[in-house]
Request: fold
Amino acid sequence: MKSFWKENTFVLITYLVFLLTGLFFVISYSKADLHLAINQWHTTFFDGFFKYVTWLGSGWMVLFLTLLFLLIKVRYAAVYLSGNLLITIFVQAGKHLFFPRVLRPVAYFKGVHTLHLVQGVVMHSYNSFPSGHSATAFGIFVILIFLIKNRFLKFVWLCVALLTAFSRVYISQHFLVDILAGSLTGAIGMYLTIYYFNKRFPDCCNFSLVTRLSDKKKKA
Reply:
């Protein structure tokens, strides 16, 4: 796993800069002031853009990637699903056990401020911390930079993860602190899973589902 850090130094440092910058704003300003400041900057284009980008952190994306990984190598799908299970446990524990009363922006500002909301987005009111979509997006980011060797594509996937996380603030489903915590939860959860699989099951499931089915047909 040492090579993981060496090969991904640039994107990991970029992500760290994002975290530290976000942490600076979270410490310096209230989450209400931060959200209102971000919420006032909106356009018709970005309303549509972030409305759909946010789906990259949904369960549908998890299902799509799992099926894709099965076709490439079963091991990748096993690691990815296990990582998402761990991430889900972390996120749901945060939402329901440790921070169950944390309101989402629409409930937090109800009767106080009128937020700009994106039309067609179903708004939620509770269980704001941490952001599950951000956790999913950064779980995807970690496993992809582990598998992909091209440095430019690694950076592209970081940008996709950042945009997905930010979309949750833009459409007022989460506060900035929620997506910072969510991104860190997803990144750490997926990294721990990859580390565990490489340590305990280095040779497990190293075959493609397509190849295995093709071999069975030939034998039949």
The chain has a mean pLDDT of 93. The longest helix spans residues 74-98.
